[in-house]
Amino acid sequence: MRPHAAAWSGALCLAMFTVEVYSTCRAICDRERKWEVGDSADNTETEQSYKYDKANLYSKATFFWLTPLLWVGYTSPLELEDMGDLPKEEETEHQFKKFNDIYTSERVAAGREGRRVSLWWCYFRSCWKLFALGGLFKLMGDCVGFVGPLGISVVISYVNILRNPATVQPEYPTISEFLSNGYVMGAIVFVAALAQGTFSQSSTHLVNVEGIRLKVALQALVYDKALRLCVWNIDDHKEDLASHHEDEKLEKINGL
Questions:
Q1: Which residue from 43, 139, 175, 241 puts its CA 20 to 30 A from 183's CA?
Q2: What pLDDT was estimated at residue 45?
């Protein structure tokens, strides 16, 4: 098999593998979701501007699901009412229940084994799926970024061949000769640039959204713990100090 044909086949296999991995991760995440939105949420679906979970693969890749909100912002200045209602799965209560279950199971396991509770393990169990998917998208975006520099060398070689034609080209080019064409390689470089931006934006979106979910869940857990403290054993100074430490911890988690 020619090198160019092998590279083309490898790129096609990589694209098919990406779709399969994404579909598998999507199925796993949907199967383990414990708090599904009920039938009552169907009535408010049109009032929600964040429809990422309900969009298909191509809409998620191109962020086409955000087009209605962008169109509203194009026609008139956006107001708070234009943002719509927050989906049930993105609310603080949902994220708190999800993280609290993980934290409770970790606390029971730590008490059984006689060790300290590991919040890092709770973080990992809570958001490793989307973080892994975002990392995969980032890796694929970086790999696709090599197509541009390698394609430029092919274009330069094609220009040199046109300036100094040594042999007569056959009527029907082979796959290797087709990929060596400067115009074809230019189109491939253009598609690779689009793919790199798509992978990069998808990775950033997944990591940021999952980080916000983790921060909200941890913030709700900290304040839920603070509300369970005995009020008569805490003076004003200690209460302010505890609140300051809680806010400081949350800021550090947000920085991570």
A1: 139
A2: 47
DSSP secondary-structure letter at 146? T
Which single residue is written with the structure tokens 């809680």?
246
Give the 3-state secondary structure of residue 200: helix
- Compute the half-sphere exposure of residue 163: CA atoms within 13 Å on the CB side of its CA: 6
pLDDT grade, residue 204 (50/70/90)? very high
Model confidence pTM above 0.70: no
Q: How far apart are CA 228 and CA 65, in angstroms?
A: 41
SS3 84: strand
Half-sphere exposure of 4 (CA within 13 A, CB side): 14
- With cut-offs at 50, 70 and 90, classify the pLDDT of residue 40: very low
User: Does residue 38 surpass a pLDDT of 70?
Assistant: no
User: How much is the average pLDDT of 30-51?
Assistant: 52
* 3-state SS, residue 247: helix
CA distance 126 to 128: 6
Q: What is the pLDDT of residue 102?
A: 92
In whole angstroms, how far apart are CA 254 and each of 141, 160, 191, 212, 215? 25, 53, 35, 8, 6
Give the Cα separation of 90 and 102 in Å (integer). 17
- Let me know if 78 is exposed, middle or buried by CB neighbors in 10 A (0-12, 13-18, 19+): middle
Q: Is the pLDDT of residue 123 over 70?
A: yes
DSSP bridge partners of 48: 84
